[in-house]
Amino acid sequence: MNKLVIFLALVACASAADWSAYKTRFGKSYRSLNEEQLRLRMFEKNKRIIEQHNKRFEAGEESYDMGLNEFSDLSFEEFQALYLSSFDAAAAASVEQQIDEVSSRAAPSSLDWRSKGAVTAVKHQGSCGSCWTFSAAGCLEGAHFIKTGKLVTISEQNILDCSSRAPYNNMGCNGGYTSQALQYIIDNGGVNYMSNYPYEGAVKTCRYNRNSIAATMRSRSSVARTEAALKEATANKGPIAVSVVVTDKFQNYKSGVFNDNTCAGKVVNHGVLVVGYGNDSAGDYWIVKNSWGKSWGESGYIRMSRNRSNQCQIASYGLVAVV
Asked: Does the annotation mark 312 as catalytic?
């Protein structure tokens, strides 16, 4: 009875309507009263953070606003364990070739590969730290389109199953390296279509089918570790796989130009895809495709600050698929 009284008091504090609407919107259900009590506390905490941040946004003190999303009933520690990855910076940077910072073709002032047809629909990695497979797939999807004029949707599950073992040694849902995912595709002679090898969000037996090759690639290369080089690579090579630092601010992002100086000095923990860049009244930004579904951020995308001293290390580990 005491637990029920506490639970009802928490609901009253949060507003029963808000909590009910949140659960309905995101299809939430919980295994027990204890579990729902915990999720409600996390929801309340995140809701307060969002409301305080958005007051600053409305006052012109922030360049982006926050909003409730499917992760708002999780602490950042829980969120990190379920959706983020772990990287070794040295391993992430270990590729053989580097793109020169200066290109013969000048990069335009703004660019969006989505408008050119080089980017597939936003996907959802589920409760699996497989972001590195989505970053790799998006990079190759873009490169394949630029080379052939055909946009194909690549199987992240193929990459997850078949490169989470020696010699690639990715760690499945516990993290991995985009560079090793791309190396697997090179060595394997291709990767399957998603339609023939659908995403399951857990490591399974490798079931690669040589009769269902969606795309191949000849090599991989890294981008020089500056934002100027990342801009030129994005303009001249296509969507670029990158690794970034994700904080609790990123978790709650809704729209605008994301500016987070708290990510300085932290280790990258998430693989994403740069699909363009631009600027508005809030400043220069990168257009970044995420893998948390369309309900997060700007329909699955985030605009991250550009030309702010490589904020969140967005330019530190850029990778190109060469087809």
From this structure: no
